[in-house]
Amino acid sequence: MSVVNPMSHQTTTPSSHCPPQSRYQVLNVVNRGAYGVVYRAWDMEAGEIVAIKHELEGLSRSTLREIEILQSLPHHHSIVDLKKVTVDKRGQVLVVMEFLPNDLRRLIAARKEAFSATKLKIMMSQILTGVRFLHENSVMHRDLKPANILINEKDRLKICDFGLSRWTNGSGSYTPGMVTQWYRAPELLMGETKYTSAVDMWSVGCIMAELVLGRVLFPGKSEIQQLGYIHFFVGHALQAMLCNSTPLLSGSGVDLLLSLLALDPNHRITANEALRHPWFLEL
């Protein structure tokens, strides 16, 4: 969700403003933002832990968009589940989501050694499978980043936060100021309004590089600096940096990453093509 991340596992005492909904027993507040609160709760009917988003001033536009998109999509194992949209006893809307205890950003920050090549391939395969599903269903996520990739107890990665997502349309004209800056494609940084789902693939490339390097690939402090990083590193400088990384990417792995980070969106690899890349077949 766009206002607060319901999967942050912060332990705080439930406030007196917890939603009075008899089906759900609130366990703790996991996140609090300017527009609302996210609770970790026990669903007494389903017998499972859920995340409940309660917006204080009514549902924001981004939350309404997220609900619309998730309700329209069939269930998929790489996409977070929207379980229910309900109304509490005070007439306020509650958005009930699948609860996942971790996210990729925290996993990267907490790691003490580099991911193995096998682990890297598993994570990338799961991310790309989710992105392919979205693109096949005419959805651009537009904010893919490690914090928006959640992880369940079985290490399954799931894409969340569809507050900036859009259906692709015939005109292809959209707002350029989407995607968190570090993961924003160069065409968006240049103000392009006619773009495609290739912007998501650039973000996936940035995520893959971060998994390999253990740090943000392009940590620009402004859009101009972001473009400077991109134009300096994409190409030979990035290839040299990756060849010295741990775990060492094979030549095939470097090729996949450079294909995701192609400056020209028309030459950027698609999610379906990426999943069929030879790197995934290497032992």
TrEMBL record:
Keywords: ATP-binding, Kinase, Nucleotide-binding, Serine/threonine-protein kinase, Transferase. It is an enzyme of class 2 (transferase). Its EC number is 2.7.11.22. Gene3D superfamilies: Phosphorylase Kinase, domain 1, Transferase(Phosphotransferase) domain 1. SMART domains: S_TKc (SM00220). PROSITE patterns: PROTEIN_KINASE_DOM, PROTEIN_KINASE_ST. GO terms for molecular function: ATP binding; cyclin-dependent protein serine/threonine kinase activity. Signal peptide: none annotated. It holds the Pfam family Pkinase. Residues 24-280 form the Protein kinase domain. Belongs to the protein kinase superfamily. CMGC Ser/Thr protein kinase family. CDC2/CDKX subfamily. PANTHER family: CELL DIVISION PROTEIN KINASE (PTHR24056), CYCLIN-DEPENDENT KINASE 11A-RELATED (PTHR24056:SF107). This is Cyclin-dependent kinase.
